[in-house]
Amino acid sequence: xxxxxxxxxxxxxxxxxxxxxxxxxxxxxxxxxxxxxxxxxxxxxxxxxxxxxxxxxxxxxxxxxxxxxxxxxxxxxxxxxxxxxxxxxxxxxxxxxxxxxxxxxxxxxxxxxxxxxxxxxxxxxxxxxxxxxxxxxxxxxxxxxxxxxxxxxxxxxxxxxxxxxxxxxxxxxxxxxxxxxxxxxxxxxxxxxxxxxxxxxxxxxxxxxxxxxxxxxxxxxxxxxxxxxxxxxxxxxxxxxxxxxxxxxxxxxx
Length: 254
Description:
Blueprint: H1 2-15, E1 24-42, E2 45-47, E3 54-64, E4 72-87, E5 92-94, E6 97-99, E7 104-124, E8 128-147, E9 158-178, E10 183-194, E11 197-212, E12 217-234, E13 237-253
Antiparallel strand pairs: 1-2, 1-3, 1-13, 3-4, 4-7, 5-6, 7-8, 8-9, 9-10, 10-11, 11-12, 12-13
């Protein structure tokens, strides 16, 4: 989070030092109501913890400019927080703790990531645009499994794995305007399929131009977002998780 705030401040200060018609700054956020499913574990001992559905928040800031050959930049932050519980059908190890068969355990999945994206605007005629680039996805968070205190037990045990790793992803985005309506259809995504990692994070929806003038543009957005985390051995963490659901948000363009 400190890294994101520092870069955001730098972009804001820089944008104030140039002429408005030479640079564009986009700031947006969304409220995402997602359903979590799948399993995770250590060393391929993956377990379905019956993860709960949650409401997540995400936001981004992007900087676009007219300088040829220099890519535009975008920074986005997303949190994936969920929890669940289950009864183990086999013994597992997680975060230097061992949990026996038949144990009642709870799980906390608290992982966020910051996307650092450099992209080029391949085409933009006012009604249709297409961008392509590369993203560095910086994972950061904690995943824990804890035994549930049962009658006759005096304490619980908790195993935790901290995640801190960056992976490269392909970025693409497009937008199609619907003439004379104020509406736009859009899609955006990051994708990776390399070695044992299979990741995607895409969203598609519709936006409406609430305010459109020389000083500021404000668009309201509504759509569907899906994230898949199929990871092999990121700090000993193995996952096969999906987060899917609808979102609502807003984008401000200076």
